[in-house]
Amino acid sequence: MNQKDNDRTEHHIDIADTIPSAEPKRQYYFIEQLKKTVKEKSERLGRPLSYKVVTFGCQMNARDSEKLRGILEMVGYEPAESEEADFVLYNTCTVRENANLKVYGRLGYLNSVKKNRPEMIIALCGCMMQEPKVVEKLQKSYRFVDLIFGTHNIYKFAELLYLALTSDRMILDIWKDTDRIVEELPSKRTYSFKSGVNIMFGCNNFCSYCIVPYVRGRERSRRPEDILEEIRRLAGDGVLEIMLLGQNVNSYGKTLEEPVSFAQLLRRVEEEIPELSRIRFMTSHPKDLSDELIQTMKDSRKICRHLHLPLQSGSSRILKEMNRRYTKEQYLELVKRLREAIPDLSLTTDIIVGFPGETEEDFQETMDVVRQAEYDTAFTFIYSKRTGTPAAAMENQVPDDVVKDRFSRLLNLVQEIGRKRTGRFQGQILPVLAESVNEQDSSLLTGRLEQNIVVHFPGTADLIGKIVPVYLRECRGFYYLGERSQEKIYES
Ligand code: SAH
Ligand code: SF4
Ligand code: F3S
Q: Where [4Fe-4S] cluster 2 is bound, by residue (predicted)?
């Protein structure tokens, strides 16, 4: 479902002025210029110009893509179904090698599309572009790419797009880092009723396997007033559910001039924006999860009973090597406190298999935590060596066949426990936010419980974006089949 209007009204800028240097004014200047350029080009071709933005990676990238789409639509591009479009942008991820390979694969295909569409503009941005060796390779062997920019200067998209449209050269603009946050740029939401909201950017944790701190830069929090203002606007526009986004939301606010805790921010969101029905957040680092946050979740009527709490490994020795700064025991103790305070909580996690030096005993510790923590779902990853991270230089890399065998044993366990856990609501009537028409069967709608569990139930598209009571008739592994219930739900 698409939202009709941009989230922001336009800043009026007279294009006869000299180019402003202050942001976001400067970008609104280029938006005005782009409007003219796009109109001219479209008149010349006798049809509207089309765009396609393809997103790889995490929710942070998905949110960034909404901002990029916001600008594209504001200047006159229309969304295309496929990559056979006038402007194609890949917003890339580099967290694991296969995320990287996917982009190169698709670029090969884009090159063939461009051969039949010489005026097409191909652009790349996102985390992969922050790696110098990637950019070198693109400059050498992917000359058909027109525009490359990184994560730190994404707010300059309008300006860079203008340069790309008015030049024949490859436009390349990558910054090493930044400490600035530019507010007040447009965005085009994917859903009318839910939205991600960045509360912070970057990461300071330097887990030894992870490339994110290198490509996303240092941690910086947005000011609570700016976050609240954005959410207020979203709520005014019909958004019921927000997801507060950051690599480590539990350390939110520590670097602000007037420090604020994440729990304080959550309370302000809940108190000051009554139109919201659901508040989610992602991701929580176990080392920073405070008792204040547990209490805030417990007391809240709107913070969803779902916590994504990445474990990575169950072995205290490996956790130390990973620089995660908690032990197996501390993690399990945290889970215990969470379960006691919030009994209906869904817990999900991320786990890496095959970190350098991982032995069968270490792996068994991971399996043990999975049994004890009883995750609803776990995202399991095979360790991927990322150049420049401390773990990449570790000598004792685990052989592929050993990793694959561990991975499949872990997956089996995770699925077995997940199925059991998911079934715990069978027979109950619970509120479901209807999100879309079911892809396989158009007589069904697909929605989610606050625990983030998927529910399919008969219904019509007019219910999309509404929270309705659903009788959870049958659990099918990781989702439910249900029926709308006329009974009222009394929330505690
Ligand atoms: N900031 C989040 C995670 C962001 S990356 C956190 O700390 O929880 C998402 C997940 O990708 C991580 O939780 C981790 O499980 C996985 N990941 C990161 N780097 C990886 C690597 N080099 N190999 C395999 N998985 C990795
Ligand atoms: Fe990567 Fe660790 Fe930061 Fe998460 S907390 S983004 S895993 S360095
Ligand atoms: Fe990937 Fe960047 Fe997110 S590396 S996981 S898109 S922060």
A: 203, 207, 210
